[in-house]
Amino acid sequence: MVRVMVLIFEGLMFLSVAGLLAAFHYDLAVGTILLKTLASLFFVLTGVYGYRRGKGRRLFSKPVLIALLCSMAGDVLLALDRTQGIFFVLGVAGFAGAHVMFSLAFCRVCAVRKTELVWTFVVFVQLVLLLALGNFDFHGLLPVLIGYAAVISFMTVKALSFWNWRQGQKKVAALIMCGGVLFLFSDIVLLFWLFGVGMQEEVQSVNWILYYVAQGCLAASLSA
Question: How far apart are CA 209 and CA 20, in angstroms?
Fold first, then answer.
C-alpha cells in the first residue's frame, strides 16, 4: 500500500511535468504556472504521506516536509516572476530555506564531519568560478547567487554523506544522495537558463526534469 500511494503521487507529478513541458513549448503562460504548481503539489503530497506514516522519525521527516513546502513556494514565486525582481528574490529565498531544512534533516541522521566542510568549500569554490567565468548577465543579483551557492554546496555534500550510512538503509540513502546531486545539477542548469546569454528553451526543460526527479527522490525518502 505504501509503495502504491507513493507511485500514484509521483506518477501524477510526472504527468504534470509532461504537461508543463508542453505548455512551456507552446508558450502558454497560465498553463505553465498552473502545471508547475500542480507538479510541486504532488511532491509535497508524497512528503505529507511519508510524514504521517513516519511518526517515529519526526526529527528527520519534519524538516524534510518543511523543505518540500519551501520548494513549492519557490516554484510558484519563480513561475510568477517576469522581471527577476522581488518574486525572483523571494523564490531564491524559498529554495535557500529548503536547502537549509534539508541540511538540518540530514545532519540529524549523520553528524557533520570536518571532511564534509572541506568538500563543501571545494564545491562552493567551483560554483563561484562558474559564476565568475561563465557568460552570464546577473542583473545585479550576483551576491544573492553566491549566498545560494554556499547553501546548496553544503546540502549536496551532506546528502552524499549518506554513502557512509547506507548499511541497513540502502534505499533511503540512495534516494537522498540522488536527490541532493540532481538538485545541484538542476540549479546549475537553471543558472544558465535564467542568466545565460542566448539559451534555448530546451535548457529550461532539462532543468525541470532534473528538479522534479530530485524532489521526487527526496519526498519518497520519507516513505522508504
Answer: 10
pLDDT exceeds cutoff 90 at 84: no
Q: What is the mean pLDDT of residues 51-65?
A: 83
pLDDT, mean of residues 17-46: 94
Q: How far apart are CA 83 and CA 107, in angstroms?
A: 36
Q: Which pTM value belongs to this model?
A: 0.91
Question: What phi and psi, each to the nearest 5 degrees, are found at residue 139?
Answer: 55, 35
DSSP string of 152-187, one letter each residue: HHHHHHHHHGGGGG-TT-HHHHHHHHHHHHHHHHHH
Residue 15: Cβ-neighbour burial (10 angstroms; 0-12, 13-18, 19+): middle
Residue 166 in this model has a pLDDT that exceeds 80: no
By C-alpha distance, which of 145, 213, 222, 223 is closest to 180? 213
Q: Are 199 and 83 in contact (CB under 8 A)?
A: no
Distance CA 95, CA 189 (A): 15
In angstroms, the CA 189 to CA 208 distance is 9
Please list the residues that pair with 196 across neighbouring strands.
136
The pLDDT of residue 1 is: 64
Residue 138 backbone phi and psi in degrees, to 5: -85, -10
Distance CA 183, CA 61 (A): 18
Q: Which three cell numbers stand for residue 1?
A: 500500500
Residue 26 phi, psi (nearest 5):
-95, 10
